[in-house]
Amino acid sequence: MGVDVGDFLKQYLGAFFGVYLTTTAKVFAVSVFIQTSLFSLVNLGFSLWNRSVVKWYFLVGSVLFIECLALFQSMIMFPQIYGEFFFFRYPSFAPFLYFLTDTISPMFFNFVLGILVLLLFVILGRHVYLHKNKESFFAILHVLVLGFLHSHGLYLVGLLYFVFVNLQGKHYENVHTKTYGLLLIFLLFLYGLPSFWMGISSLRYSEEKGKPPIFILSADSLRYDKIGEKINGQSITPNIDLFTKDSFVFHDHHTTIPRTFPSWADTLTGKYSMEHKIRDMFPSPEEKQRIGSPSFPTIQQILKKNGYDHFAIGSFAADIFPRANFGFDEVYAPNFNARIMTVQRTAETQILIMPFLVGSWFSGEKYLEELDGLSTWGDGDRLLKRFDSLVSERGNSPYSITYFSSVIHFPYTPAFPHYKRFTNPHYYGKYKYLKFVDPTDSSLPNQEEISQIRSLFDSAVYAFDQEFGEMVGYLKSKGIYDDAIIILTADHGEALYEDIHGQGHGEHLRGESVTHVPLMIKFPKSSKFESIPSIEKNFDGITSSIDLVPTLLDYFEIPSQLEYPGKSLLTILGQRDWDEDRFVYSETGIWFSDVGNHFFQKQRIPYPNILSLHQVVPEEDYQIMITDPIYRETIAFSKHRSIQNSNYKLIYIPTREGVRFEFYDRKKDPLNRNNLYPNHPMASKMKEALYKTVVKWENASLAGEYLIPSSLSDINEN
């Protein structure tokens, strides 16, 4: 979610002390296994080489040396992970981090660590060649076992293995040589089993006519205006630029709500959040159960009836997918709850083993799946591995993959070398590697800092573009690209200190940067839409994220008894605009803080900050929720709402003094500085359209100019 988990944990440390103990024990067990493995391997190498007992201090020094090499490599690859350590706990050490990232490539440490691993195998080979005894076979077996356990994160099995080995002592000499041979063959089989199983499993799936694979490839916070933007003459999205030549491009596409959970709920159900009630990041149990119900089926559930299987892949911002019934058969994304946050905070203190936990060296990222939810870990490689694995297994069979990258979401954390791509190499301030959003801080960074923050964002966009290029390239290499439906979009955009708009998303609806996101759709080459010339594949009319479900239902010719507020985009393919004047709706998310000098804080109806509103619900796997119905209705009542067409935007702002309206010319005033309400001739028409939309889809009522949302209980009774 990209929020600071520290404050949440402070609130609940006492109430969930048992959770704290168990999660701490889990991290401790992983640490013990990793440290024991390193000591064991170093001791084995020295023992086989000189046949003498290794001094304890030499052993400790050698392990510490290896851990430091791995740490330095990891610090260069992912400096954001270590940002808290260097910028908040021990800021006097920050120059050392600067030195590493500015002057040394991670390949240097990879090379040194690789030499050490190679040296171990050379020592093993030498011992086998010279002695060919049972000790040699045991040593090889021991190294292979530890490598297998490490690569699969089987730390509990590893601890039991060490106990077993310690109890056996020299009894390995009593094991028959043929037994060692069988064990080695079995281990090698286990190493190759995943690839073998995938090859066998892929035989189960075959292409079905009219059911192309569907790929929804998306990134959190990807702004429309970043597509094709050039810096020093170079586009920051070269792979997406190439994709536009094969796809229909919707140039004025908007999200319904600039917060991740409700935005995805709207996109995948085709319904407004004001109707299905997932309106913020912390829905109550009753609210989230509505997603996937007969009234609000997702496109995944609908296509499931047509033989499709569905998968979701993502990093920390994708933690919304396991938290509601979106209809995915498998979700390869982290969850978000108090227990997982405790694991993350505890693991972050184990700086020497962090490189092994995030797999920055020698593939160890499977120890703690909770670390997938680290907002400072912007590495897309692990997501691409999961994507490639699924595509390799499923081929051209009926399935969909929703891929959701978090690298562009604050704190903007692309891995090496991308974080250097557009940033100033001579900047050494607190935003050198990342920038969180502090909802309580309305102060404006200086121009150098703003430039750095925007450059981090641009570098993150470039990093996602590279992920996108890898996925498209893999689909082409597998012969899947031409036959697939590929959709590129985002859940929302991001404000980056334009005018007085601040940084982040969800707090207000001014400007173009927060709701205006990309939408590109590539249909199979066999479809009738591919006969439309490329020059006619650009649509300038306004579209909404709720249009995706009607579009896919139309493509697959699936009838529905439900009424959808969106429109099928198939009807306008080949056109430049709608025949009618279309309006699209958006609303704000929840305000995390109730303090600050932001312009929207001065306008809004106040309610307590998120730390006062939320609860940790043990019955829901310790998820963080807002369960008080009074607060939920207050949040809904306080929302800012907008309606816009291709030229104008009207914003509805309820305040304690009455309802305020803002009306802007989108073309002449994209930053929304000049409020034209109520004098513009379109203002009254758009106000009427806004009220009509909310009354219809939220079943809202009016009290003067205030929109009164229907409560969840009222809807359930109906």
Question: What's this, in brief?
Answer:
This is Sulfatase-like hydrolase/transferase. This protein has 718 residues and is of the alpha/beta class.
Uncertain stretches: none
> What's the N-to-C terminus distance?
33 Å
What portion of residues belong to β-strands?
5-15%
Mean pLDDT: 92
Structural class of the helices, strands and pairings? alpha/beta
Global morphology: globular
Any idea what the radius of gyration is? 28 Å
Structure description:
- The chain has 718 residues and is of the alpha/beta class.
- Strands 1, 4, 5, 6, 7, 8, 11, 12 and 13 form a nine-stranded mixed sheet that branches. Strands 14-17-18-19 form a four-stranded antiparallel sheet, covered by helices on one side. It has a two-stranded antiparallel sheet with strand order 2-3.
- A hairpin with a 6-residue loop joins strand 9 and strand 10 (503-504).
- Helix 2 (17-50) crosses helix 6 and helix 2 runs parallel beside helix 15 (338-348).
- The radius of gyration is 28 Å and the shape is globular.
Please write out the topology.
Elements: H1 5-12, H2 17-50, H3 56-77, H4 83-89, H5 94-103, H6 106-131, H7 134-152, H8 155-168, H9 177-202, E1 214-219, E2 230-231, E3 234-235, H10 238-244, E4 248-254, H11 260-269, H12 273-276, H13 285-288, H14 299-304, E5 309-314, E6 330-332, H15 338-348, H16 354-357, H17 381-394, E7 399-405, H18 447-477, E8 485-490, E9 495-496, E10 503-504, E11 516-517, E12 519-522, E13 538-544, H19 548-555, E14 584-587, H20 599-603, H21 610-613, E15 615-617, E16 623-625, H22 629-638, E17 641-644, E18 648-655, E19 658-665, H23 683-698, E20 701-703, E21 706-708, H24 712-717
Helix pairs in contact: 1-15, 2-3, 2-6, 2-7, 2-8, 2-15, 3-6, 6-7, 7-9, 9-17, 17-18
